[in-house]
Amino acid sequence: MTRSRSANKDAPEHLVLETFLPYRLSVLANRVSNAIAQDYEAGFGLRVPEWRVMAVLGRFGANTATGLCHQTAMDKVTISRAATTLLARKFITRKTDPDDRRRTILELTAAGQRVHDEIVPVALAHEADLLHTLSQSERAQLDRLLTKLQQETEVTASRENARGAAQTR
Fold first, then answer.
1. Bridge-partner residues for 129, per DSSP?
2. pLDDT, tens only, 52-68
3. Topology adopted by domain 21-133
4. In angstroms, rounded to a whole number, what is the distance separating the alpha carbons of residues 142 and 139?
């Protein structure tokens, strides 16, 4: 929902990026991911998308590419490239879904599970380093706020998907 400048006379003349929440979240996420990515790359030869696929499979078990897109908020091309790399390294397997032969199921191999289990302490250490500056109550508040924002973005995405599906009919 966009408003024209004339519809909102109190609108600022320009976007103040340093206070614009989507920008701040993006910069923070990029900085955190880049710091962690250095360890994933150096220690395990993995890029962030490959680790995210492994992390989801390690936490929730076998999944489809579409399911991984939903859980990671990464696009299909990124998931496909990550899966191709992980398949080549024998960290995951790809099997046809017996319930729907058009879909494939991705799952960690034993080697992939071992790498996953080695990376988890590294990831948790990065999280601890980031969160050490917050008190326990601030951490709890941050968790509540992030959950609330995530739920809102899921509702918004569902509405947009429904609108898009209705327009293609």
1. none
2. 999 999 999 999 999 99
3. Arc Repressor Mutant, subunit A (1.10.10)
4. 5
Residue 153 Cα to chain centre, angstroms: 13
Q: Residue 17 is which amino acid?
A: L
Q: How sure is the predictor about 161, in pLDDT bands with cuts at 50, 70 and 90?
A: low
pTM score, whole prediction: 0.80
What ranges do the domains of the chain cover? 21-133
CB 63 within 8 A of CB 96: no
**Residue 66 to residues 20, 55, 126, 160, Cα–Cα distance (Å):** 30, 16, 28, 17
* CA torsion, ordered 106, 116, 135, 129, to nearest 10 deg: -130
E strands of the chain, at which residues? 92-96, 104-108
Residues 131, 139: Cα–Cα separation, whole Å: 7
Instruction: Report d(CA 58, CA 107) in Å as an integer.
Output: 8
Q: Per residue in 98-130, pLDDT tens?
A: 888 889 999 999 999 999 999 999 999 999 999
